[in-house]
Write a structure and sequence with these properties.
Length: 425
Amino acid sequence: MFLATSLFALDGTKIAFNAKTNKHPLKYEIGEPMVFTFTLDLKGQELEAPLAIEWTRTGDDGLKEEGSVVFDGKASASMTTKLGCNGFVRIYAKLKQADGTYLKSNGWRDWFFDGGAAVHPELLTSTPEPEDFDAFWARQKARLDKVPLIADLTELNRSDVATVYAVRILCAGPRPATGILTIPLGAEEGKKYPILITLHGYGPPKYRPGKIKGRGAPDMITFSLNAHGVEFMRDEKYYIAFNASIKENGEKYAFNKEVNEDPEVTYFNGMALRLMRALQYLKSLKAWNGKDLHAKGGSQGGLQAIWAAALDPDISLATADIPWCCDFGGHDNYNRLDSTFRPAYTRALDYYDCMNMAKRVRCPVEITRAGLGDYACPPSGVAIMYNNLKCKKSIVWHQGSEHSYVPENCETFRLEAEAIQENTE
């Protein structure tokens, strides 16, 4: 508790708050001290009174601690913890001023550090996959095969490098696969191109009239897949009604636990069918070069990128940023820190879990960002998914990064590995 008061309020928009560990944050041993030293760059401002750094420690061991340290701008401010099991520890800290208020970053949110460290994340495992995992997905592909591969294209515009289309593709499940396709003008001369399919984060996007002005790329075919099969260029009433229609018993889509008890009824099923159908369509394009098919997305789009690589052997590269839905059962079955935004665990969701999909991926995978403070996508789950990849792979961990926030000049830690050669004898 501070008695002094600041003569001049700090401008919270002009600071940078982070923390560093005393060693590589992913290479601790059980029981080894983890020292977090907080760093605060005031960008030339003067600290008239000390700040309190109030921290909360939680972890995959189920323990919780709270405390505070003083930052006076002269001596370093740090806290120490440890972990009694393989897994992750989370440190969440805020800055309290002398008047008892928290320093805000932009007038409404308190400045925070949200990061962590781990003990042997490479050894983490989780819920065993369903015994009929592959048979289940063979059935879903068989459902698709019963629906003819027919696409309707509507030209939206032509730029100086590509033609832009709205695409609607017949699909199994409740709705068609829809997306925005761009094809380079050179395709008209018989040229062949790689394909990039981009996949969307959570939420039903709107495509209002006049709002799609894609330019495309001169050297690749691109396809932006809508996760929901929404129609394009409709009026506002359509999108309001559509967004309401995909709620499940009043809950946001994919979050109703009762619906998620059946793997063929869960919202994820239709999403996966639309993804597989979109890939089938893209591979049928005469302008595809027949070898380069890159799936890319973040969050829910990262989930779909891993699905794509697992379910379609023609994917040549998968890029996933902060991939969602890794280790659905980690909290219920192993008492790991739970996700702050993810459907409650059911056994049916194991069929859609990235950690199980990862075992089937053969193309290179790049995890471009994984946050040590991202508990929409808990780092333990992302680590397990990465462990299960047997292909060429890389992951970049970001210290202090939440799901939608990456701190200024944060430390990053890159891991990579070559593909594991399977014994075919």
